[in-house]
Amino acid sequence: MLKVKTPRNHRVRRELEKRAPKLVENGKKTLILHGTKTSGVLNEVLKEIYHLKKGKAVKFSRKNENIKPFENGGETSLEFFSMKTDCSIFVYGSHSKKRPDNLVIGRTYDHHIYDLVEVGVENFKPMESFKYDKKLAPLIGSKPMIAFVGEGFENVEELKHFKEVLLDLLRGEVVENLNLVGLDRVYVCTAISSNRVFLSHCGLRLKKSGTKVPRMELVEVGPSMDLVVRRHRLPNDSLKKAAMKTARDQPKKKVKNVGDDAVEGKIGKIYIPDQKVGEMAVIDKSKGVKRERREAKLKKGDHEHVSKKQKEDST
């Protein structure tokens, strides 16, 4: 028999409840970490990604030697960090002569590596290099729009997979309704070739259009970069099947003696036991009956009084 450990205090219990499976999952957090060797450009890229994901990201500053996502056994430390930080997306930066300014973006399921995309960063421009009105600066944590331009995202397998990973990385919280005033940023992803994507970050400027829907203008606020797809690994079939499994809607608890009608709406039934009228004691509390009984008693008392007098006279 395996021993089941239970949390000893309320803080641990609350943390476990947050990480437990839910019908409606929480927003995905991003883990950002460095490899054994990184370049100045790559450090700036990781810093900019952390700034864009601030509030939903965890950044490690130390170098990690044992992380090699595409090699067998090289993902153990990465999965451990994912479990400790409760992050389901990670961005890993490394630099080498063979693969300069290398970024590995991946997703995890149940803290196991789900899929991976390796890209190279070229023509990087940080936020500081763009000049614009600071009033147009997007707010931290705001919901972005994402535009994918180019047929490559629909025809090329590598770019199709890269599109899915970018959506999970950039979209933030999943919401049903959104106020138009709250839209202040757009990520524009343009497929330049079969393995190159230009990523730019733009702010929104709302102008009058003569209708209820305002006219929108894009102002580039940075960062921007070219991402060259180098390697990618699709998820395992068994892991993909487990990850795509959806929970059935919980059936509504049946309420007794309550039904729905198309015309009358909600209808309820009331249980009334059988009434045995013959066995019921009828209590009559009407005032007229009481008065008749009282008068009858008085008459009876007078009659008895008269009969006693007659008996006394006869004697």
Automatic annotation (TrEMBL):
Localization (cell): Nucleus, Nucleolus
Record-level GO cellular component terms: nucleolus
GO molecular function, one term: rRNA binding
Positions of the Brix domain: 28-238
First-listed, main subcellular location of the protein, grouped into a coarse class: nucleus
Keyword Nucleus tagged: yes
Stored InterPro entries: Brix, Rpf2
Keywords for the protein's UniProt record, in alphabetical order: Nucleus
Chain segments carrying region Disordered: 283-315
Any one biological process term the GO annotation gives: ribosomal large subunit assembly
Protein name: Ribosome production factor 2 homolog
The gene coding this protein: LOC115954144
